[in-house]
Amino acid sequence: MSVPMLKIGAVLSTMAMVTNWMSQTLPSLVGLNGTTVSRGGTSERIVSTIQLRSSDTLALYPSPEEGWQIYSSAQDADGKCICTVVAPAQNMCNRDPRSRQLRQLMEKVQNISQSMEVLDLRTYRDLQYVRNTEGLMKVVDGKLKVVSESPNPKSFQDLKDKVTQLLPLLPVLEQYKADAKMILRLREEVRNLSLVLMAIQEEMGAYDYEELRQRVLLLETRLHSCMQKLGCGKLTGVSNPITVRASGSRFGSWMTDTMIPSSDNRVWFMDGYFKGRRILEYRTMNDFMKGQNFVQHLLPHPWAGTGHVVYNGSLYYNKYQSNIIIKYHFRSRSVLVQRSLSGAGYNNTFPYSWGGSSDIDLMADENGLWAVYTTIPNAGNIVISRLEPQSLEVLQTWDTGFPKRSAGESFMICGTLYVTNSHLAGAKIYFAYYTNTSSYEYTDIPFHNQYSHISMMDYNPRERVLYTWNNGHQVLYNVTLFQVIKTSGD
After folding, report:
1. Of 381, 446, 435, 380, residue with least CA distance to 412
2. What value does the mean pLDDT of the chain take?
3. What CA–CA distance (Å, rounded) separates 142 from 137?
4. pLDDT over 70, % of the chain
5. How buried is 467 (Cβ within 10 angstroms: 0-12 exposed, 13-18 middle, 19+ buried)?
6. Are 238 and 217 in contact (CB under 8 A)?
7. Cβ atoms within 10 Å, residue 401
8. pTM score
9. What's the chain look like in SS3?
10. 392 and 325 Cβ atoms separated by less than 8 Å
11. Per-residue pLDDT tens for 81-125?
């Protein structure tokens, strides 16, 4: 009996030591000390410096590997806060590779803890069985003494019967051997985890991870407040491209709803520019990136070009071989209204420089719904019309004087039309027309045309980002806007 009982004692002692080590040491290794690391969430990535008041300035300087942009604040001669804003915000904490590694390690520790709980339960059960057989083993011991002193057939048969009753103890002891080996493996795995966690702690520094994450979230809340004050601004820069996915043909368009405010996270995908009718609707951006969870819409009329826009749950697009604009409602899967854009060229009469039946380009910004096109009376120069979203009636029109065939693409931000000088590599934002003053200027805002053939470029005012289709790649650009923030004292 002493041999199995010694094994039991060794197993229980080892489990107690390992469990105690994990409960006391792991929290200090990761710098949590009683706090719980939550799963990242969907916090947006916005980086800025906000001048809250003359003596209260917050700044966050992110790692350059994240592709974040640092921007500044200052005061003009009147004491107003001048803010340069990079938007939109993408996700921060859950993109940190160290935080992902930390969460994976914590999950691994949790799995080890669960395995040890199972071992503990099984050991307790088997221990009860061994204790119950203790009396039987004493009887066997007595029978052995009797047999050795006066051997007879009846004594041997009694001994055989008692030994048979002890046979179920053998698999229990075998299980103990296996459990002892498993604990050795768990101990080694925990030791490796401790080394990795200590390395992460040294890399992340002295900050408590959860505390640091909460500080970032608080800063982002203040930055959101700053952006709400910003409203509109002048485009001063475009970030490096962010490739979301490579899918579809060389030409196409993709978008999210541009209505402000909106909680709609769906993504729409329209491949091609010629007689297309099929639209793929993805539930979220993450689903779009993975190519999963989508439904299909089949338009009653084919589209022309890539200048489509989704605004307040409806798709606005140019009907193939016409200057008719159609409003298609996704939820009811029906056409709500269609109207001819009087005098507008179509069918490659006045396209952008890349062609593709891009005569009529529909877009939205902070001020509403717009159509960019040209007419014969305007001698092929770009015309801007603001549209009424319900009826598609033209509310006001501007002649920019810029030849449309010389433009690669265009987009509206805060009532200003920005035009690129090419759709190929080396393109830049070359021309800006301000509808609020009916004036224009030539600009020099470079951006990286990574895949060398842009066939769609639209601004989303809700996310403050440029959506582009670049040679079969779906790409995003953050934008930098410049604006004077009105403080509470103004």
Report:
1. 435
2. 77
3. 9
4. 63
5. buried
6. no
7. 13
8. 0.59
9. CHHHHHHHHHHHHHHHHHHHHHHHHHHHHHCCCCCCCCCCCCCEECCCEEEEECCEEEECCCCHHHCCCCCCEEECCCCCEEEEEEECCEECHHHCHHHHHHHHHHHHHHHHHHHHHHHHHHHHHHHHHHHHCHHHHHHHHHHHHHHHHCCCHHHHHHHHHHHHHHCCHHHHHHHHHHHHHHHHHHHHHHHHHHHHHHHHHHHHCCCCHHHHHHHHHHHHHHHHHHHHHHCCCEEEEECCCEEEEECCCCCEEEECCCCCCCCCCCEEEEECCEEEEEEEEECCHHHHHHCCCEEEEEEEEEEECCCCEEECCEEEEEECCCCEEEEEECCCCEEEEEEECCCECCCCCCCECCECCCCCEEEEECCEEEEEECECCCCCEEEEEEECCCCCCEEEEEEEEEEHHHCCCEEEECCEEEEECCCCCCCEEEEEEECCCCEEEEEEEECCCCCCCEEEEEEECCCCEEEEEECCEEEEEEEEEEEEECCCCC
10. yes
11. 555 544 444 444 455 566 666 777 777 777 777 777 777 676 666
Closest alpha carbon to 90 in 472, 473, 464: 464
Phi, psi dihedral angles at 242 (to 5 degrees):
-120, 105
d(CA 6, CA 452): 74
The tally of CA atoms less than 13 A away on the side-chain side of residue 70 is 8
Band the pLDDT of 226: cuts 50, 70, 90.
Answer: low
**200 neighbors 97 (Cβ within 8 angstroms):** no
In b/e form, how buried is each residue of 336-346, taking b as 16+ CB within 10 angstroms? ebbbebeebbb
Q: Which stretch of 23-32, 144-153, 175-184, 346-355 has the lowest confidence by average pLDDT? A: 23-32
List the structure tokens of 378: 């305007």
In this predicted structure, the answer to whether residue 18 has a pLDDT above a threshold of 80 is no
Identify residue 303 by its one-letter amino acid code. Answer: W
346 CB-near residues (< 8 Å, 6+ apart): 304, 318, 321, 322, 323, 357, 359, 360
Structure tokens belonging to residue 278: 């099929």
Q: What is the spatial order of strands in the sheet that 252-255 belongs to?
A: 252-255, 267-271, 274-282, 294-304
> Which residues are CB-contacts of 185 (< 8 A; sequence separation ≥ 6)?
none
Please list, residue by residue across 411-436, b when 16 or more beta carbons sit within 10 angstroms of its beta carbon and e when fewer do.
bbbbbbbbbbbbbeeebebbbbbbbe
Residue with tokens 């640092």: 70
What is the chain's length?
Answer: 490
The answer to whether the peptide bond before residue 261 is cis (omega within 30 degrees of 0) is yes
Query: Is the Cβ–Cβ distance between 311 and 292 less than 8 Å?
Result: no
